[in-house]
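MODEL INPUT / OUTPUT PAIR
PAIR INDEX: 1
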Amino acid sequence: MDTPLAPAPAALPVQIRRGKKHKIDFGGSPPASDDLDHAVDLVLNDASLPAHLRTVVSHLLQFKDQFAVLLQKNRELIDENDRFRKENSDLLNENTSLKSQIGNLRSELSRIRNSPLEQLDEPKSASFCVCEETERKRSIVIAGIAECEANLSSTKVIYDNNCVRRILDHLSIQCHPVAVYRMGRINSNRPRLLKVVLPSSYYSSLTLRRAPKLKSFSVRGIFIRPSLPKCERDRLRGLRLSRSSPHAEGVSCSAIIPSQPLLDSQQSQISQSMSPHLTNSCIDGGDPMISQSSENV
């Protein structure tokens, strides 16, 4: 009789023993490079280790060197990226500023295009009037000095400057004229007016105050007056014409030519300088060149 086979015992569960995981101390100081290189040399030179293990260690060492090169390159790229970001930020700020300036210029251009030309000329004309008024205040006008008959213009200029210099010397005016030139067109009947621009209005006022001293000068028939605007010259001319007219007794002087009244100091300077002061001989010692006409004053 066959004996029944006993059932096979159940398989026992296999227990796999796991080794302890070693914790990596990230806070500790890294091993020195010399120690690591020395340890690698010992492993590679250890003949008891399998060849394949030493091969793996050798490749890992090569990977370490390549990784160090990559880290250095990465640091350089990071620095370069930071520099580019800073430059980009500066360019953005500059671009914003330029856009703002362009907007302002466009607004100003639009305003100029829409403005009439008269308004644009006002600042220029105002500044020109200020400069012209400044030069007029430091200028005087001399009438009665006969013109030089020389052919060369330079000789005529020297002659006019010598005449003015002798007049200023007689009045004790210690300055050099800035400009001396004739005004108007050449007229054979009478000499042209001579305009003298002095360094400042102080010297022109001083010259007009000392004009009566020309009574003692050796030359007569010359007149000095301040440089006046056209409206004032027209008014004075009208006054002279009204006084010389035989029917001027009932004419009011104030109604001849309406004009802005002169200041008291200017009026006194004109009244003092309108009398004849110089005579009829050449100022620079040459031939008689001085006219006694007073029509141009």
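PAIR INDEX: 2
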Amino acid sequence: MFRDRAGPKSGPRKDHVSKLQESGRRPSLPQRADLALSTVRSRRPIPPFQHQLTREKTGPDVIVAFDGPDDEYNPRNWRFSKKVITTLCYGLTTMGVTFASSVYSPAVGVVANEFHVSRTVSILGISFMLFGFGLGPLLWAPLSEVYGRKPAVLIPYFICACFTFATAASKDIQSVLITRFFAGFFGSAPITNTGGVLGDIWHAKHRGAAIVGYALSVVGGPTVGPIVGGAIVQSSLSWRWTEIVTGIYMMAILVIDVIVLDETSKPTLLVYKARRLRLESGNWALHAKHEEWDITLRELGNKYLIRPFEMLFTPICFLLSLYSSFVYAILYGELAAFPIEFQQERGWDLVVGSLPFLALLIGILIGAVVNLANQKYYMKRFNANNCRPVPEARLPPMMIGSLSLPTGLFLFAWTSSRNSPWELTCLGAIFIGLGFFTIFQASLNYLIDTFQQTGASAIAANTFLRSALGGALPIVMAPMLHNLGINWGISIFGFLAVAMIPIPYLFFVYGKRIRAKGYWSRGSL
């Protein structure tokens, strides 16, 4: 093959090399290169491999699987306490990343002054991290399926902590933005893969309650972060301690995770089991089905780069992702709106001006209670459907949230002045938190129940869109409120929230018909 490619010119070079070999002299470097090239060109094509078993397919007796439905090695059969601890650890891990995304917000003004840039440039530190959240899942989701959940979460999480410390050591605004972006890129791993972990260990009838706890960790970080960050920035400590404290928290949780957590991916666990059986028995034919997967970049790219965007343009995935992304953007937009309302408008200091985020957190906790209360209704529909998921039964909390969100936005908008009681403004924040959580959680649950075989791609599409919108809104929020005023600036989002009210009702009534027409969703019928 190579000899034919060389053509007739390879003859003299080959004779020259033969003379060098016969003379016994040590060839020079160019001559040794000629010798190597000659060897490659003269190599004969390798004939096809032959073996007596190549014509026989793999028998089921050498495929390693779980030992029946009650195998304790199966994560679904773990002890309840172990499942709770696993859920708690992944929740705290995720909270570290979402906390990092918002703890920077009280330092925006200080960072702008230190590096002599505008507040708009400084606030990019929040946006860049959210943009990293959007791009990271395109890598961490496939890695979790190939190598397992634990390494695909903890290794990027460690790198995220390192970039968090790097932000604290930054000497200019460019370094702050770059390190924040990569902290978000690597930190998106637990945000992306924790949903898969919960699917590995919890049955569908219990998964809703588990996802409530996980969702609280996702949204609890952005509400607690500004309070902690405000206390640090106003103290004698530098703004850099917002990043140092976050990095220390991440490293502490990482140590606990390494000690406590076990792998939950069933294909990966069976690979571990097959490897151990081969070593113990000496039967090297034993293997897991996952080991037969001949992974290609094209396959991974189609599944995790192309498919999410294809699914994003289906009616179900697009509308629910748009709705959840809108409320997610509202949450991060409040990081810019609250300081304007409570610090600039009302004259509160940095710490006291961050306390209204507690009102947002109270609303989120009420939303969690509403979601848990809906679990009884969901289980009734679940059992009536032969123990199969019923996506529409996830929507009643979203119906409540669709009314609560615009109520909160308008109440916040038109009580935002020194002459209005601050209690009413905080009440509006409670309604916003309630609407946010019920809409956000129900959207994720509906997508998971609907796209049962391609749920990872649906969540990846959702994560990409919500991170893009969430990263963009903090940039435009402050200029919008300064130009239009808080009243009309927030009211614009209230009108958009009103326009989206029909979405949960549409899917509650017609969702089953829409699912029946979808290529990826018809499997949920």
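PAIR 2 NOTE: The chain has three domains: 2-41, 60-283, 310-525.
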